Amino acid sequence: MQPIDTILDSITPDAVQTILLPTGWGQGRALFGGLTAAIAWRHAVAGAAAGQQLRALTVSFVGPVLAGEAVLERRVLRTGKNVTQIAVEIQQQGEVVLAALVTYGRARDSVIRITDTPEPPSAPPAEGLSFPEVAGLPEFTTAFDYRVTQGGLPFSGVKSREFGGYMRYRSLDAAIDEGTLLGMVDAWPPALLPHLTELAPASSLTWTIEFPAHLPNFSTHDWWHYVATIDYAADGYGHTHAHIWDPSGQLVAISRQTVTVFA
């Protein structure tokens, strides 16, 4: 398995470029969505204005992204004094398989400041459940360590609206950035899966993740805290939101997903 930071470093600033998507990061018949979202983010970076930081990334997983040749295309929709909006597509065989809207914004003085976002109560990572190494786990999960401290393991029949715990890269030990964080966040299975008792496929349709502040100086091998909540689930679709905290307990990202489950 090629490390995710090596994959991201291979992307050039060119607005249109052809890349080779690696094997080893499979999620069913497609590539892991966290990797493809991170690729879209990295491609957008070259279009951002100086002094602006990543504020939000919205991804639509249009179709399965496969290992092999792909075209990256970036368009700067608008660059303003404070905000830049960038569209990124991943194309394969002449069709769009992933579309992303990436928003960068400059910090400004404001009289409004609401930053008290404490972590929810949770057991420490040492007391959490790790994912069992069994047949059927997606290929990409070998890159990550998980400790489930809220809800239950996938397909355990635990009927909780909350699901989460701690996450880190198993081998990669590097300074965190938005791309590697995207990989960690999307590495968690949908929060609907612990409700099931038998294996069933599920995948993200759309994903929006917001970054309220600069990422702190921690490692990909530190434990990061993740808790997802099911807002609504019916008719084969689920709507969830999640919060992500750094190892010091500071909120670093807010995530929302629409997922589909075939059960």
From TrEMBL:
Domain Acyl-CoA thioesterase-like N-terminal HotDog positions: 22-105
Protein name: Thioesterase family protein
Pfam families: 4HBT_3, 4HBT_3C
InterPro entries named among the record's database cross-references: ACOT8-like_C, Acyl-CoA_hotdog, HotDog_dom_sf, Sec_Metab_Biosynth-Assoc, TesB_ACOT8-like_N
Residue ranges occupied by any Acyl-CoA thioesterase-like C-terminal domain in the UniProt entry: 129-261
Superkingdom field: Bacteria
Classification via SUPFAM superfamilies: Thioesterase/thiol ester dehydrase-isomerase
